[in-house]
Amino acid sequence: MTGDQPREIAVLGGGLAGLSLVLQLLDHGVKARITVVEPRHTYTDDRTWCFWDTEDHPFRHLIADRWPTWRVHDGTRAHRCTGTCAYARLSAGDVYAHALARIARAPNVHLWRGTRVQRLDGRRVQTDAGTLAADLVYDGRPPRLPETASGTRLLQQFVGRRIRSDRDVFDTSACELMDFRLPQRHGIAFLYVLPHSPREALVEATVFAATRLPAGRLDGLLDDALAQRLPSGVETLGSERGAIPMVPNLGERASGPGVIPIGTRAGAPRGSTGYAFLPIQRHSRALAARAARGTPGPVRMRGRITDWLDRVFLARLIARPDAAPDDFGRLFAGVPADRLVRFLMERGGPLDHLAVMTALPTGAFLRHAAAVSLPRALRPHPRQRAPVADADPDSPVPRS
Ligand SMILES: Cc1cc2nc3c(=O)[nH]c(=O)nc-3n(C[C@H](O)[C@H](O)[C@H](O)COP(=O)(O)OP(=O)(O)OC[C@H]3O[C@@H](n4cnc5c(N)ncnc54)[C@H](O)[C@@H]3O)c2cc1C
């Protein structure tokens, strides 16, 4: 079905989701006037995006590092995995620069920097620089998250430092995804190390916890870990920090007709891992395709089976945080690397899902699975079809 393309589009928030969507709208030939409302005056290199390099997207050519091998230390043993797709790193600074340059060349896109949305009244966007009346609103403002998580959610909190050593200390052939040799008393804690060169790396301390940790606790964890691993001659080049919600099916419903949530607000961070970069790319592409056809509307962030598996994994992490190092160790040791990567990047098929489920302690997995209601796709005699399209349906993607 095709219809009329929208004429006036407002994108609230020029973060990853807002900028990715604008590039997709341009690539899909959407001619509407597009206004992006963004409080920042200037963009800085404020974060690092990592994911497995499984597919194409508008920022792929900017990937700065690729590691064909990754390591996980479960506290007792180290596991080393090599897959077909490398683990990839993108600098936010490069992503922003590329998107802003394209926006500057597009006569129909206007970026209102230094402007904050104050209120959304239907499709009327009230900002501190005036009111915008749009046919279509994509809302990428950060969602409000409770300070204390309820029994079904965690907060992934991390602080990272870009450091330089005066000696060769990093093995650039592999990155360290999770090293659980950190004190586990504040939550599920691990170190994450992305080496750019033998002397430079991003080193992050991450904790999955139900509550927000007091300021300084993560820094303390990171300080201690750095002091143990790199006793002297270390210079800090920069830092980043964040808190990513680990909530199954976080996505907000559209607040009204013609208002479509995007990014974190639409549930991009995966409930059991927090990975959001590739889901945002797929979601943006699917939303833009709908707008270009003249049938703009919401798109589910991911399939129902993935949502269900996330609930089960999250239930396990919440119920048995002490078992997390061993659970992750089993996954990385027991599931063939390519299968696990497809599962983690939401590109898995039934055999990949099965391999992941059977790598975990079966009794525990079944207990948590029984406590989480089945996705509609698995229930007998579904009565209703999903009202929205899927950005990433559960069917596996064709693989070469
Ligand atoms: C430090 C950090 C590292 C991350 N690393 C990874 C990673 O390695 N891999 C991965 O998959 N995911 C990662 N994530 C998770 C996720 O990919 C990012 O959070 C991503 O930026 C989410 O995109 P977004 O557009 O939803 O949010 P953002 O990029 O945060 O964009 C939200 C935008 O809304 C704007 N805004 C706020 N208030 C208003 C307002 N009132 N009016 C208008 N605009 C407003 C903000 O200025 C911002 O530009 C990371 C997150 C953080 C914080």
Automatic annotation (TrEMBL):
Pfam families cross-referenced by the UniProt entry = Lycopene_cycl
The record's annotation in InterPro entries points to: FAD/NAD-bd_sf (IPR036188)
Disordered as annotated region, ranges: 377-400
According to UniProt, the name of this protein is: Lycopene cyclase
What's the source species for this entry? Rhodovibrio sodomensis
